[in-house]
Amino acid sequence: MAQIALVSGANRGIGYEVSKQLAGKGFTVLLGARDLQKGQNAASQALREDGLTLHPCQLDVSDTASIEALRDNVADEFGKLDVLINNAAILYDTHQRASTADLNIVRQALETNLYGAWAMIQVFLPLMRKSGRPRIVNVSSGAGAFGDMGSGTPAYSTSKVALNALTVMLDAELKSEGFLTNAICPGWVATDMGGSGGRPVRDGAAGIVWAATLPDNGPTGGFFRDGKRIDW
User: Fold this and answer.
1) Is the pTM of this model over 0.90?
2) What's the CATH number where 62 sits?
3) Do 150 and 97 touch, CB atoms closer than 8 A?
4) Which residues are tagged catalytic?
5) Which of 14, 73, 124, 143 could cross-link with 157 by S-S, CB 3.0 to 4.6 Å?
């Protein structure tokens, strides 16, 4: 049976490219999109342009009912989940500074970027325990690395720091069960969120795919960019 991978926030940008790269490696890829029509459009584009089959599914990581509904569908159709890629993220708040940040915006960022990923892991964990090679990939950012942090993007950066901490805690809990759990920084990538000037999306996505396809003796509990460990 093919490996089953679920990618959140996958109808565009890095998530879409990750989905295509995994499909090209023979994975059955569930393309999670908050707007199902946009997910269906993305899947149609991948089939038309690249001959790749992606399986669009409605997924709003800030809505527990949406997550649980998808979990039930995956359980019925596949009986397991091998790879969970928490890619969905919002609010790259370059207009804010920590001392004056609108805390409502910070809460919105945390709701998707941290709590959304956390809920995904909790809800899908029973299905991942049925996999022979479970992999959790939390898409983080250098904006959440203490050494690279400045005064900007306080909502986004704080959410990614917290996501990194969650990665470490999950690894400590799950590695004895064979899970590989890592945080991945794709670098500055030319997407709708990152803006123009970044590197090609395929390059940023490649590091995420690397983490999703690690061998059983691969690293776990780390923070990586392009397959190389970076500082928290």
Assistant:
1) yes
2) 3.40.50.720
3) no
4) 156, 160
5) 143
